[in-house]
């Protein structure tokens, strides 16, 4: 995988809350941080990174371009602004946040602008987020095979997206799972609770370990230091074939995020 398998997410976290979350995450061992222009917290993430004392070369920073910056004249300029806020000369990964069909900017245009940002050294890798199979095909056609590092998509035990994840694997594109805990809904699941008890683990650890064992990267967030540290232990949890089969059976197309005007037609 060309991206770290475990990072800390910052969605819905702002102000001192996000500074504390990222500082705590870096302090307990995280080295990948995921943010986005629309989160409104890039400057605070930059502050947390600066305060942490962790060398930039040891970090993997991801940000995402928001829809209003997709046009070719805007994309690179907006990424330069993001870099200023993040206090870095480059990010490791930049994603198109949503395909946003019909927003007036063609996919080929914004993907070409993203590739330009990479050529300029503003980002080490490029990728996409919330793209279906057809739009992923178009993105590959726009920038060439091997250029798209990841498709960051909503995945959880309740939304397993088998067609899309199989296609991405076939194309050599890493899958990054967000909302792996389904806004916390999976934490009450009786099947996951039994598996967690069997392994003397938390339910969150089980859900994250499930995603990791399928080869996905995960970016859970938390405002609590103890939960950040606990989530990280999912890397050491090994689920057996029976556990994985039970979790596979939890599929219910339980999508939590599908904003009108931004989301594609899902596979």
Per-chain topology:
Layout: E1 8-9, H1 15-28, E2 32-34, H2 42-52, E3 60-65, H3 72-86, E4 91-96, H4 107-119, E5 123-129, H5 133-143, E6 148-154, H6 162-171, E7 174-178, H7 190-199, H8 203-213, E8 217-218, H9 225-232, H10 241-248
Parallel strand pairs: 1-2, 2-3, 3-4, 4-5, 5-6, 6-7, 7-8
Structural summary, described in words:
It is built from ten helices and eight strands. The chain has 267 residues and is α/β, with parallel strands linked by helices. The protein has a domain at 8-183 and 216-223: TIM Barrel (Alpha-Beta Barrel), CATH 3.20.20.100. The protein has an eight-stranded parallel sheet. α1 (15-28) links the parallel β1 and β2. α1 (15-28) packs parallel to α2 (42-52), α3 (72-86) packs across α4 (107-119) and α7 (190-199) packs across α8.
């Amino acid at each position: 995988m060309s991206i770290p398998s475990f990072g800390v997410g910052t969605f819905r976290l702002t102000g001192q809350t996000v500074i504390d979350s990222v500082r705590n995450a870096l302090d307990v061992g995280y080295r990948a941080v995921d943010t986005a222009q629309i989160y409104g917290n890039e400057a605070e993430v930059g502050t947390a990174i600066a305060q942490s004392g962790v060398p930039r070369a040891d970090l993997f920073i991801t940000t995402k371009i928001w829809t209003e910056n997709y046009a070719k004249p805007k994309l690179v300029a907006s990424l330069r602004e993001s870099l200023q806020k993040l206090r870095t000369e480059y990010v490791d990964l930049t994603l198109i946040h949503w395909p946003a069909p019909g927003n007036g900017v063609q996919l080929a245009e914004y993907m070409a602008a993203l590739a330009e940002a990479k050529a300029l050294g503003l980002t080490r890798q490029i990728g996409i987020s919330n793209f279906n199979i057809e739009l992923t095909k178009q993105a590959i056609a726009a920038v060439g095979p091997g250029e798209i590092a990841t498709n960051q998509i909503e995945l959880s035990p309740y939304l397993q997206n088998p067609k899309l994840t199989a296609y991405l694997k076939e194309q050599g594109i890493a899958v990054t799972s967000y909302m792996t805990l389904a806004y916390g809904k999976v934490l009450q699941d009786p099947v996951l609770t039994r598996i967690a008890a069997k392994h003397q683990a938390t339910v969150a650890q089980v859900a994250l370990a499930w995603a990791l064992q399928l080869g996905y990267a995960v970016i859970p967030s938390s405002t609590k230091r103890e939960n950040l540290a606990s989530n990280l232990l999912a890397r050491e949890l090994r689920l057996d074939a029976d556990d994985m089969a039970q979790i596979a059976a939890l599929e219910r197309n339980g999508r939590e995020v599908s904003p009108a005007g931004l989301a594609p037609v899902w596979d």
